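Troubleshooting log. The previous run stalled partway through. Resubmitting the same two chains, unchanged.
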Amino acid sequence: MFGLEPMQFWTFLFLLLSFGLYIYIAWRSRVKETKEFYVASRGVPTIANGAAVAADWMSAASFIGMAGMIAFLGSDGSVYLMGWTGGYVLLALLLAPYLRKWGKFTVPEFVGDRYSDTVRVVAAICAIVISFTYVVGQMTGGGVVFARFLGLEAHWAVVVAAVVIFFYAVLGGMKGITYTQVAQYFVLIIAYLIPAVAVSQQIGGFPIPQVTYGTILAELDALRTEFGLDRFTEAFTGRDGGQLDVFLVTMSLMIGTAGLPHVIIRFYTTKTVRGARFSAFWALFFISLLYLTAPAVGAFTNLNLLQGAREATADSLPAWIEPWETAGYVELNTDSGAIESVSNAAASGADLIVSNDIMVLASPEIGGLPAPIIGLMAAGGMAAALSTAAGLLLVISSSASHDIYYRMISKEKASEKQQMLVGRLAMSGAVLVAIIAGLNPPAFVAQVVAFAFGLAASTFFPILILGIFWKKANAKGAAAGMLTGLIFSASYMIYTLPLFGLEANDHIWGISPEGIGTIGAALNFIVTITVSNLTKPPSEEVQEMVESIRYPAKQQLEAAGKL
Amino acid sequence: MSDVTHESSSGAAPPEDNGWRQRYWKKNVRLMVVLLAIWFTVSFGFGIILIEPLNNIEVLGFPLGLWFAQQGSIYTFVVLILVYALWMDRIDKEFGVAEPKEGAQ
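Second attempt completed without errors. Output:
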């Protein structure tokens, strides 16, 4: 077809169609007002907002990488499954309804009003840093898709992805982003579920992956033992720190999720407080469709890979492996021709080394599905990367233009027009820097994601919770708490990770840098409470504000009379 | 503030108001504590602390601890948020603080 292989043809077609759809939606919902730009006029229906939050949340890492990580981590892959879903319970019960009731544009706005302007600036800078590290990951994630399916240089993937995002994020702001994200959710979930169901049918003879998954575990355990891997079902084998570390990492990812500005900001867009609660439900419902399927996909692809490796020699591996080998994601190191060990670690020296990142993208080929489905898969991976990147760019833009420019620099004198202009400029600047960073990803990008969660967990989460539930929490306490959490977590990460050319040290008590956010958050709580108790409580107005966000609406008199 | 949300207490609330306020808030906090206790038990309790003993029980091919860690906890999270949203609707209506214009559905 047009001189392309069928797979490339379908990939092109699906990518073009989906990009066209996103840009069309963004054009339809382009905006002129600041309020529309940041919170879509609070006119987003609850279910649509839930789907948008889900697409916003599920990044290239969730879509492309997670099932592959679980395939090799086995039982301990649960840290990501529980960590990246459990945070929504905290968000729904402890944060979303109250922040919506208080109702402004950004997370730094809340801490600015609740505590002080200094805390606002610190929060705005944290929000920008956290979001930016994430964007770079999305840009490089898109590159995997382009490299494998179109044979394009990863560089071009970054540029194309950035141009598409630029169009609809700058044009449509939150409104454009929200409605494109709804479309992106459906593209990505369909792309994820179709191959999963097909592979489930093929491997277990039953089309529901969550059920088939259980029936193949015994066989998978036996095969893994044969190839020198830990049993899939055995707990605490995937992480050096064992049970304590699994606990801390799960907690850190959960409270980090609840503290991430690009997630929280989405609950400002609902019409009502009630809408914010139901949005959180729909968001987790939509997210769970992918997260409940991911471990099954991980187990299936792992089983297929090991079965193939057992029956085959290096020359007769399953057909889906070869193109991935060409693209550099699979490595064969065997002289005898027989494959005796399999690993996902490049340094392991195993006979067959497979990258985590290909397990999901290869699943249609493993399931023997036709070329159009493979094309759909590529569109799904891009949808996941684009939707998350756009949501993050909006946070960068709103923090820069609203919290820093409008509040601090123009002293609230800037007109609507000027604010919009600065917002769009900030977003354009962020896209440009993201392209540059995506083209030359700094070596430490992977570790920086741990930074983002640790930072959100140990800075934002505690002072948001205390700000809502404890009237006596004051500015001095919050500033001291945030700084303590930040310095503690960042120091441990710098100590244990090979960042900035420093040497990595051993983990203390087996606690990995991903898990340190839990301890940083605990310290933040302790310091904020202690300092607040020792200093003057906040003003009457602030305490009254904290009181007022507890009640969704003014009490209706006739109802009150009944009480 | 958008006009559909109705700022609840721009002026100081009259003192006799405080009774219902305290009762409303107490109900809210009690519901929250119960749901968070379930959240912790299922994920950290069954999925991490007790995963090894639970793995000795097998259900439909799954060691039970693994099932809680990778499937059961997520189902529970979804249900917890739904229960919270529905229950808060009831409490809001009971106390007459439900928002007049519905955003959900």
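Takeaways: The two ends of chain B are 22 Å apart (CA to CA). Chain B is about 65% helix and 5% strand.
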